[in-house]
């Protein structure tokens, strides 16, 4: 890479410019608080990539460079197909991260368009996010900024859809990540993240564990099903206070009341981390998603069927709907239905009616004879 002098947020970039004598910027496709993402052509491979660069005017430039360095190092260590793939990065005179170019839309756009998603699809997306997190958590990496904008629904060339988790820019390492230097990856005493999707301990600026990411997956699942995060509304401080103190609201969909899926959401949204699922794998098992394929065709939602249910986390729970399941395999799981007790009560009522009819028939026979 040829050094052309520092660009660290001081030199504006525009379509047509070259970065690192390799990447020709084609089009701006997104921007955030500290970075701009371009569609760019890798002239070495003649392939298009997503190139993230520092914005022309960047507050706290040294902190931003550290964030870039963190994100590049963390993404490079993650290989799961549900995590965005890093291709190249430069963090010296030219500051950039080259990633696979994804075609599709973020979950935030899908929610804005449809307000809420079918239950089966919501479950499938949540399971894909959990698979990405499972790898990250094993490596001691906590995302801590999961939100709909950072979950990308990829439209694959064959017509299928897959999920990618994006933006590990403010990720934090746990003490179980010896392959990195934790002192270089932590912003101490700051409540980093997005209020609607913060865990209670994150809102309080406390140390985080993987339980914090799981809490956010619960919020995302609640929002996909209902169309609204559970603690939304008011100022950022109002939301953070509700994350810390307010009870989890019941699901407004009557068919989901008192079902394992509602209990799973309530469990993962517990205020105390120790009361949540112990790991992404455990939550995935509770949602029936251990065997969910990473890629597939999203089938339309099915009508809820009255079937029996098993306790959350039971080993024999049915599989969650996969991104790729046929319509037949997306028959509604017992996770979405009422408890077995309701079904047996219905059977007893029917049996009572049958017994009464038989008794009346016998009585009529006796009278007539």
Structural commentary:
By secondary structure, the chain is an alpha+beta fold. The protein folds into three domains: 18-100, Phosphorylase Kinase, domain 1, CATH 3.30.200.20; 104-338, Transferase(Phosphotransferase) domain 1 (Transferase(Phosphotransferase), domain 1); 340-369. 33% of the residues lie in helices and 16% in strands. It has a six-stranded antiparallel sheet, with helices on one face. A hairpin with a 4-residue loop joins β3 and β4 (47-54). The protein is elongated and about 105 Å long.
What is the fold's blueprint, element by element?
Layout: E1 18-19, E2 23-31, E3 35-42, E4 47-54, H1 61-77, E5 86-91, E6 95-100, E7 104-106, H2 107-114, H3 119-138, E8 141-142, E9 151-155, E10 161-165, E11 172-173, H4 200-203, H5 210-226, H6 236-245, H7 260-268, H8 280-286, E12 295-296, H9 340-368
